[in-house]
Amino acid sequence: LKFHIYNKAVVSTQSTGDYINYKSGKGFAFLHYPFILQPHVKSIGLQFDNRINMSRSIDPFFVMMSGEYPYLKLVVKRSNIVEDALTHLEMVAEEDPGQLQRQLYVEFDGEEGVDEGGVQKEFFQLIIAELFNPNYAMFVDIEDTRQVWFNAQSFEVDHNYKLIGMLLGLAVYNNVILAIRFPTVLYQKLMGEAPDIRDLIQSHPLLGSSLQQLLDYPDTDVEDVFLLDYVASTTGLFGESITHELLEGGADTPVTSDNKHDFVAKYVDYVLNTSVSKQFDQFKKGFDMIAAHSPLKAWFRPEELEKLIVGSPKLDFKALEPVARYDNGYDADTDVVKWFWEVTHAMTDDDKSKLLAFSTGCGRAPVGGMGEMNFIIVKNGGDSERLPTAHTCFNVLLLPEYDSKEKLRIKLYSAIQHFEGFGMI
C-alpha cells in the first residue's frame, strides 16, 4: 500500500533554475523528489523539458538561413484526416524521429489560417472523434461505465492503434487535453505497472466485483457453489459471448477453493493484457515514440498521467471567473455577464461539465485547474431568441445580451443540453 503526500507549498519548479539544477545534477532541485510535487507543478517542469527537447531538434544553420522555426508540420484533409495524419507521422518517425519532439503545427488542406493553437486543438478533436467512432470498431464500451477498452476482435490495422498512442504523446508534448475515456489501468500499463484484481474492479466493475466475490468466499465448496471452469468469457463488439480457455484443457478444469486465486489472476491477465496485447503493444509503441525521451515516467504516477492527458473532473468555475476575459462590448460588470456566472455557479456538476464541453470541446479541467484556462465571453448581438454558440477551438463563448437572467438561464441550458459533437462553428 502506497501513500503519496503532496507539499502544496512547493511551487519552485516554476523557476527555470530548479529545472536547470535537475538536468545538470548540480544543486538542489525539487524535481528530484517528484512524489512531493502536485501534478500541475510537475507539468510546468515537463513544459520546460519539452521546450529543451524541441530546441535540440532544430538545425541552427536552417534557422539562420531561413529565419523560420521548424515545427512538426501536418497538412491534412478533413475528409481523410486519419490516413493523412498516420502517413505523415509514420514517415517522420522513420526518417527523422527527432521531429516528433517539435511543436505541432497543423494545416487543413485548402484552408487559410495560421495555427496559433486553435487549429491544432481542432485537429485533435476531429481525429480523436474519428478514431473512436464505433464504425472503426477499435474500442468497445465497458458495461456499466462510460469508458472504453480495446476491441480484441478489431479488424483495424495495427497502425491505427499506434497512431492513437502517438496522439496521446503529442497531446502531452503540446499541452492539449483529449476527450478520451480510458480507465486508469491503461495509464498504469503505459507506465509499466502490472494490473491486478483491483484494477479490473475499477475498469470492469461487474466482472471485477464478481471475481472478488469468488476470492472472498470463505467456504471450501467453491466448485459446487460457483460452477466455474478455467474459462474466461467476454462480450464481443456485437454483444456476442466470446470464451477463452485460461490454460490447456481449461474447459474441463473446475475452479476450486485451492486454485481460485490462480484462476482470478489468469482471468485478470487475460482481460487486461493477453486478449488485447496486439492492440495495446502498438498503442504503447506510438506513445513511447513521442514520450520516451521525457521525464514523464520518472515524475508522474499513472493517475497523474491520466490527468495530464484527459484533465480533471473537478470543475471550479469560481476559479475560472476571475481569469475570464471579455470582448465586443462585454466586461465583468455587464448584467448578462454577471447573470451568466450566477447561473453557472448554481449548476450541477454534470451541467457544468456540459457547459465546459460546449464552450471548449472538453468537459474536463486542465491539470492545474480552471484558473489556468483561457476563457473568453464575447457579445453576440443584443437581446435575441438565438441560443449561445461557441468557438471551441479558442475557448470562446458567444453570448447574446439577453434582457433577463431567467431568459439567459433558459437559453444557456437549452444550448448545452442539446449540444452534440464538438459544437464548433
- In helices, the fraction of residues equals 40-55%
Query: Strand order across the biggest sheet?
Result: 7-8-10-9
Mean pLDDT: 85
Report the total helices.
18
Return the string of H and E elements. Answer: HHHEHEHEEHHHHHEEHHHHHEHHEEEH
Backbone shape: globular
**Helix/strand/pairing category:** alpha/beta
Distance between the termini: 49 Å
Contiguous uncertain segments of 5+ residues: 421-425
Give the biggest sheet: 4 strands, mixed
Radius of gyration: 24 Å
Percent in strands: 5-15%
- The total strand number stands at 10
Topology:
Layout: H1 16-24, H2 39-56, H3 60-66, E1 72-76, H4 81-95, E2 104-108, H5 118-131, E3 139-141, E4 148-150, H6 158-173, H7 184-190, H8 197-203, H9 205-216, H10 222-226, E5 231-235, E6 241-245, H11 260-272, H12 277-291, H13 296-299, H14 302-310, H15 317-320, E7 325-327, H16 335-345, H17 349-360, E8 376-379, E9 389-391, E10 396-399, H18 405-417
Parallel strand pairs: 1-2, 7-8, 8-10
Antiparallel strand pairs: 3-4, 5-6, 9-10
